[in-house]
Amino acid sequence: ALRIHVGGRRWDRLALAGILLTFTCIYPYVCGRIGLYPAKIMHFSDTWMFYAVAGGYLGSLPQQSCKKGRWIPGLGVALGILGVYHYGAEGYTLNEEHPALLLLAVSIFAMGKCMAGGKASPAWLAALVKTMLGVYIIHPVYIHLCLRLVKFNPQHHMPALTLPLTVAAIYAMSVMTVHLLRRIPPVRKYLL
Known about the structure:
Helix content is 70%, strand content 0%. It has nine helices and no strands. Helix 1 runs antiparallel to helix 2 (47-60), helix 4 (71-89) runs antiparallel to helix 5 (99-116) and helix 7 packs across helix 8. The longest helix has 24 residues, at 10-33. The model has no long low-confidence stretch (mean pLDDT 78).
């Protein structure tokens, strides 16, 4: 089994996140743009590992880092949104490995950390956090229903309006599904 020591120095975690980002996102993206079909270099990994390491790194940053570079997450969110709209306008359907979505997700996480300012989360946010694993597991079902069954891709139809609305609807349906599944005792005990 792969074991990663995440308690090491911050630069070690940043270097690991960079390596994972390169081989699970940037390398396949560049190969796809030039017409090559890359082999999976890191079979033990996918972008989930990059997100986990990046989240651990960002979560360990002292609050002073947020004060110094408060504008950086906002810039990342803006660039991520522009990337999503640009590739959507070109007719691409982005998945979680696309660099624009990675930038957007990590920047939103960093922005939330900076906005929290080290304070305790409000009760409603703490309740939502408890559903995150279930939402992570369930949301692809709703994405596939939207794309395959309904045959609707929000990236191709007025993305400035439909993309945020679709994201909000998929998130809400995922949260409701998690709450319904928690009523089943074995699911609540072992999974969610």
